[in-house]
Amino acid sequence: MNIWNNKEWGPMLLKEIDKPFDSKDYLFEIKFDGIRAIIFASPKKVLIKTRNNVDVTDIYPELQSIKELVKHNTIFDGEIVAFQNNLPSFSKLQERSHLKNKNKIKKLSIEEPICYVCFDILYDNKDLTKLKLVERKKILDKIEENDIFIKTKSINEKGKLLFKEIKKIGLEGIVAKRKDSIYQINTRVDDWIKIKNFKKDIFYIGGFTDNENSPVISLALGELKNKKLYYVGNVSMAKKNPLYQKIKMLKTRKLSTFCDYDKKDLNYINPKYKCSIFYMERTKSNHLRQPIFKKEIK
User: Fold this and answer.
1) Based on the structure, what is the number of domains in the chain?
2) Of 289, 26, 214, nearest in space to 133 by CA
């Protein structure tokens, strides 16, 4: 098989649940906050594709050193991660991933190299996807690590304990993988499960956008500081939620409710209602990353 011409090697996707669990049928791993990537490697070259099949090889030239670790055509699955103060930093990775200047990319690849955190191997001179996860892990264990190629560590059975530990240090979450799972390309399955370590806060609703043809409404959220409402981002809420009718009954205004945000197509309202939001982290501009609406706070 010519892996370089094969466009069908998309990643196996994960189901998401809210709470960690214990099971002797699963391996548990830390979920690193980065960019999912499939890496095609040989002793001569390395090709890097995102989960959406975007070629990002030129953005991360330091990952070319992976070719020194393989003896023949190999395919890895893992996460591109930027570390800051020994912890994954998605904001730092975003800064890197948006670069286009080759000289700047080369400079940062030397001064602040990213890492590839590898958790699976799909091909090692032959297709491995039909093997059980534990068998693929044994093959992956034979690949050496270097400064930018790191393999995840797994623990048996104790998912609750691992989740408790990652919460202490503020990591993104954990992943539970059935030990006997085969690798199902481009498929979301129950065999792999992610449990995220969400943060939780209460925010005011300062505006909304409402598309009649959509089953959801987009809420503009803010937090109150010194009697001023600061914008923190938008979140989707199902229109079947009783809060939708309450918001639609409010009189809208043209003047922005927020002291630091003004968008023309937003329906601004007085911040009468509050809601509980789960989110991963705050960006440098203090906006919520991956916000999820949970409930109205009365």
Assistant:
1) 2
2) 26
